[in-house]
Amino acid sequence: MTTRDKILADVRRNQPPLVAAPDLAVWEAKAQAKASLLETFATVAGNVGSRVVLVDSIADLKSHLIIPPDSRVLTSLPQLLDIAKDAALFANNAPHEMENVELAILQAEFGVAENSALWVTEKQMGTRVLPFICQHLALVVKSADIVPDMHAAYLRTQGSDHGFAAFIAGPSKTADIEQSLVLGAHGPRSLVIFVLTS
Amino acid sequence: MKNHAELSEVFNKDEQRVNWHDETLWFVRQKRDKATHQIPDWEELREAASQIKHNVLSDLGNYLEQFEKNAVNNGIRVHWAVDAQEHNKIVHSILKRHGISQMVKSKSMLTEECHLNHYLEDKGINVVDSDLGELIVQLAKEPPSHIVLPCIHKKKEEIGDIFHEHLGSAKGEADPQILTETARIHLRNTFLSRRAALTGVNFAVAETGEFVVCTNEGNADMGAHLSDVHIASMGIEKLIPKRKDLGVFLRLLTRSATGQPITTYSSHFKRPRPGQEMHIILVDNGRSVQLGREDFRNSLKCIRCGACMNTCPVYRRSGGHSYHTAVAGPIGSILAPNLDMKQYADLPFASTLCGSCSNVCPVKIDIHEQLYKWRQVIVKEGYGDKKKAAAMQAMAYTLSSPKVYRLAGKAGRWVMKHTPFAVNNPLNPWYKQRDMPEAPKESFGEWYAKNRG
């Protein structure tokens, strides 16, 4: 008998009689009033250490980024290629080549008001490690793409298929030393979220 | 082997540290309260999570097969391990096949349970823990004392000393910001130079064959995405049926754990990136046995948030190491006796049964009731404390006879009055950290007979 068969047999012998799972439709139907979504999102984002900037267009966000000279910038938005001398379009490259990226500016698919998380898929990352290895991260989301909560978030991802995707909420952080909050543990030291209002 | 009470004494020697530990964890508990109060239907959410997990446990065999099938279709290699030994062997064989002798690891309580680091080190493989708290305890050659806050028992000055010795930070440097930066630089090199990364699994989705890993630091992602070989270890109870169930669990997990609305990163791994190898090890290690214990199977619903530890009046004052098991606190005390009833016979007694753990549990595990039930099982099986059993018998005899009871009361009052040293000494556990009260002159019964009789 293989280990697999043994474990499955032990589990089946010991598992209790079948109990149905609850219907989550009731949770999906509950949604906050739409008017406050952006406000909630911005408040929560601020609480977890993100900076939220409302902009009218992609070109608008340039003035909100201070980029030190000679720093490497990668972006998925062609409109931003003139933002720095060493700015380039992202691509699916070897992950170790991302080591010295100072700033990554990426598009997020949608945001979640209740926790300020942004859903970023492999397609939007170019290279999976990019939003984690860069020193600073900027994510762009349309204000119309902010959903109330995590139930709505997973409804929205239904049917999509990604090898890797992540909810990202704030800069990388730790409080492991005496519960003192430090931003910039292993990943980005800062996260700025540009919300496109037009 | 010292038991919980003896190990607590070690922790209790430093009263200031105990007070700090107690207050800090209570502060985390308060943050949890604040976060949960912002969700109007929090209680219903807990109930939904508990029911989903109930469904998982009742159909675990099929969910495991469904998950395996989908994960394999996604290009993930699935392994099965009946116990810790087999799990460790599988990890080692994967590394050996690739000729890898260095691995970076993110937080995985399962690998603590399996003592993976020791196993691999004996085989000449270097393992670096990349969660900051885990790195600190690894350098200190200690196990984590809390599943979410691994080095909550350490002061920043001690961490400064450890970093000075191992990572070359300035002597006497104890600023958390600077120490974290030191670890960041050190670990960045580690992430960039390791070909293999091991992560834990917070949730595995049967419907899609993907798994979710939650961190605040981003260390799981740094390790996994820079590696040629990603190994994910999970207990078989970590399954959930559908992707949308994550909506329920991700809302609960971090609010319960630290009071955050969600972890910084909730990473969904479905397929290896081109050229990468991705492995999942499904580990039983006693879980199928616990599944068969009707009174205790609910403990398998646990999502490892640590809320029961932060709220526990015993844990907060005795420290995680007093539990001498990988998962400390109330939940650990109902999980450990399943693995070894004799070795962990003391743990279900390390509780006041106040019920606070059950009240904060996001998946509504009846923790304090299970603690009480374990006590009964342990005593019945003959693993109870022998001194306590003798004392209980003497007590039962005394209370069953009014004559003996009155005599014992009189003797007690006489002893406390005339020979207080007989009770005011370290042999009497009630005297530790307490003053004994002054004995009354007479019992209520005697007073009543004199004045109203």
Automatic annotation (TrEMBL), chain A:
InterPro entries: FTHF_cligase-like_sf, LUD_dom, NagB/RpiA_transferase-like. Gene3D superfamilies: NagB/RpiA/CoA transferase-like (3.40.50.10420). Residues 96-195 form the LUD domain. PANTHER family: LACTATE UTILIZATION PROTEIN C. This is LUD domain-containing protein. It comes from Mucilaginibacter pankratovii.
Automatic annotation (TrEMBL), chain B:
Residues 292-322 form the 4Fe-4S ferredoxin-type domain. Coiled coil: none annotated. InterPro entries: 4Fe4S_Fe-S-bd (IPR017896), 4Fe4S_Fe_S_CS (IPR017900), FTHF_cligase-like_sf (IPR024185), Helical_ferredxn (IPR009051), LUD_dom (IPR003741), LutB/LldF (IPR004452), LutB_C (IPR024569), NagB/RpiA_transferase-like (IPR037171). Pfam families: Fer4_8, LUD_dom, LutB_C. Keywords: 4Fe-4S, Electron transport, Iron, Iron-sulfur, Metal-binding, Repeat, Transport. It comes from the Bacteria. This is Iron-sulfur cluster-binding protein. It comes from Mucilaginibacter pankratovii.
